[in-house]
Amino acid sequence: MNNEWDAIVIGSGAAGLTAAVTAARKGLKVLVVEKTDVFGGTTAISGGGIWIPGNHHMIAAGIPEPAGAARNYIATLVGEKLNTAALDAYLQAGPEMVRFLEDQTEVAFALADHSPDWHPEIDGASKNGRLLRPLEYRTQKLAGYADELRLPRSEFNAPVGFMIDLPDLPHLDAMKSSPKSMFYMLKIVGQYGLDKLMGRKRGSRITMGNALAARLLRSAHDAGVTLWRNTGVTGLIGGPDGITGIRVERDGKPLELSAKKGVVLATGGFSANEQLRRAYMPYPDQHISIMAGCNTGDGMNMGLEAGGTIDGENVANGVWSVVSTMTKPDGSKAIYAHLIDMAKPGCIAVDKSGKRFGNEASNTFVEFMHKAGAVPAWLVADAAFVKKYGLGLSLPGGGAIKKLVAANYLIEGATIAELAGKIGVGAAALADTVARMNAYAKTGTDPEFHKGEAALDRDLGDPRHTPNACLGPVETAPFYAVQIYPGDGSTTVGLRIDGEARVLDASGKVIPGLHAAGLDANSIWRGNAPAHGCNVGPAMTLGYIAARSLAA
User: pTM, whole model, 2 decimals?
Assistant: First the structure.
């Protein structure tokens, strides 16, 4: 067995595969090691969007990107703790990375429709163009290694199991009124039905982060990257004076592998590491991550053992997400991230006393939960809401309501008082909260928490609903509740790096031969995210930068 490589990448998400593909395309002999039996990391179960200011799709569409605007936006948002070297490298290399991958690999993106930055009040924010979405892909293009790709999270698929994409949503919504939309969706359903008849493990149409991971996986094979699954890394070879390789266990045998140019850490953060969660996460006993269970902080810990250091204190130690869970018949847990439903008109969140405590449409709602001590909390809505918009695992249309009530995921009450009793909150307080929301829905103004006032709130509301896209009544029996918890879509704490994605020690000195990308490197935003796509975008860019540095 050949144990000598130019570059070794640990981890196979967007960061790792981008680093591997780039390094291979630049002439290096590259190995990717993945400890699980599938490739794709958490990217494969993500939305897959990337936030890249100044990308060429944006420029081609005539969307302005004034010089220095994005840098000012981030610098103002992050403040004095900003790692300026990492930010400047990211802003310079991001557009270059997108162009490189689209020119030389299977990776392809398109502009995401109307996706403004999250802090429009800050100078330099953009209303559109910085977010790119991966184009859908076909499993047939993966040839004989389609089963090597991590499956998407089933909770985000359509009820029968096929994958949907953001451009599908308007058609899904208009199926009953538009023959064109009906035909569009029937083609997707028909293809999925054919896939199942042919005995395929998964649908042939893959979208979002799963499509991005598939495109990167195909590109790695095309570039000649060697990919090892089921290979656990037991340590780095070397120390503060330089990393020269790694130790692994493969097929039950220990191996030492040489990396002449260096090693890239891209193992995906520490969401599944209980010790690190307790060190960095609020309410660790109630915190539920939507990340894959294999993200145990391996890369960060290896970097620390080699002499690296954590890059200081962050604003938040995770990219927070409101989640709910349900135990399936086989004992496994379904985890749902509430990214859309809470902003819709007629959904309220209450604490154990039965009172609201924050703006349900805010993408930082978990922070309201932390500050109020509302862990766990409850989402409450009426029958009309659940049927029209869905609520958590209950998707629009209401087809699974009875099943979810039987599973004790949806709690149902004929009256608000009955619902309050079933979920253990104050009946009088909940009735008062509902009455207040019904009054706010009529006026279009939420004087308590200002739901629907910000443009970002309204983007996820219902534009057809007036006078406020995010405020609606809770009045049609029966009434429903879902218990919610604080969760994360990624961690943000990681190793300190320089502008070449090289790991630095406590004195700021480079550890030769050691790079970090993705969640193994500290968040450029220090947990104060600027927009959608703020995880995968930097992950791919840092992977590209690391590979470029190794090849140089």
Answer: 0.92
The CATH number of 319-488 is 3.90.700.10
Q: How many CA atoms lie within 13 A of 234 on its CB side?
A: 10
Residue range 1-153+207-317+492-552, CATH number:
3.50.50.60
Closest alpha carbon to 542 in 62, 31, 49, 88: 88
Q: Per residue in 338-373, pLDDT tens? A: 988 999 999 999 999 999 999 999 989 999 999 999
| Residue whose C-alpha is closest to residue 174's, from 464, 476, 472 | 464
Nearest CA-CA partner of 209 in 387, 48, 28, 380:
48
Using the CB atoms, write b or e for 450-478: b if 16+ within 10 Å. ebbbbebbbbbbbeebeebbbbbbbbeeb
Q: What is the pLDDT of residues 422-479, one digit of tens each?
A: 999 999 999 999 999 999 999 999 999 999 999 889 988 999 999 999 999 999 999 9
Dump the DSSP string for 301-344. Answer: HHHHHTTB-B----S-SEEEEEEEEEE-TTS-EEEEE-SSGGGS
Strands 226-228, 30-33: parallel, antiparallel or unpaired by DSSP? parallel
**Contact criterion met (CB below 8 Å) for 45 and 206:** no
Q: What are the structural domain ranges in the chain?
A: 1-153+207-317+492-552, 164-202, 319-488
Q: Give the integer Cα–Cα distance in Å for 165 and 206.
A: 9
